[in-house]
Amino acid sequence: MDSDWDDRVTAAWAGFDDYAARDAPAFRAVIEALVAELPPDSPLAPFERACAWDSTGHSDKAVPLYRQALDGGLAEVSAYKARRAKIQLASSLRNTGRAEEGVRLLTPELVAPPDELDDAVRACLALCLSSLGRDREGLALVLGALAPHLPRYQRAMAHYARLLVEPATE
Asked: Is this model's pTM higher than 0.85 or not?
């Protein structure tokens, strides 16, 4: 789509916290009106719909829409939004009792080319792992993601994160 459409979608989401708190269906209608401007086969449409349903507490309705967006070529339109869709789909899967699917979806993202979503991948994957009773693995991911942001102790925290899932070598 064009930059005007992107700007209007960004503006709608910028007002989400105030708007959706008052009237979630009205917020979804704003997104739906924007989506109606897209070509019928655009993978952006199910992606934006999924985000709106998900963000207003309906993970169950978001899951098939995220899948439709990804299967419809979202990665070809925007690799960034496709990665967001995977993160959000994994979270929705966890919320609907399918954390194992979320783990399968996000695990390959750990070795994807790095971007600003890396920490979100790790945080969401950690939640999925925790839902499966794999708290040590989840904690290791979160500590590993946090370590580079610390003003000190980066090396120690990264080491401790590894030790949570790897045996210590002497």
From this structure: yes
Enter the tokens of residue 95.
């919320």
Calpha distance 149→133 (Å, rounded): 27
Full set of structural domains in the chain with CATH: 3-133 (1.25.40.10)
CA 115 – CA 162 distance, rounded (Å): 22
**In angstroms, rounded to a whole number, what is the distance separating the alpha carbons of residues 94 and 59?**
9
Secondary structure (DSSP) of 115-145: -TTHHHHHHHHHHHHHHTT-HHHHHHHHHHH
* Residues 100 and 107: beta-carbon distance below 8 Å: no
Give 72-114 pLDDT, tens digit per residue.
999 999 999 999 999 999 999 999 999 999 999 999 999 999 9
Contacts of 137 (CB under 8 A, 6+ apart): 126, 129, 164, 165
Residue 141 Cα distances to 43, 86, 105, 116, angstroms: 31, 17, 16, 16
- 């949570």: which residue's tokens? 164
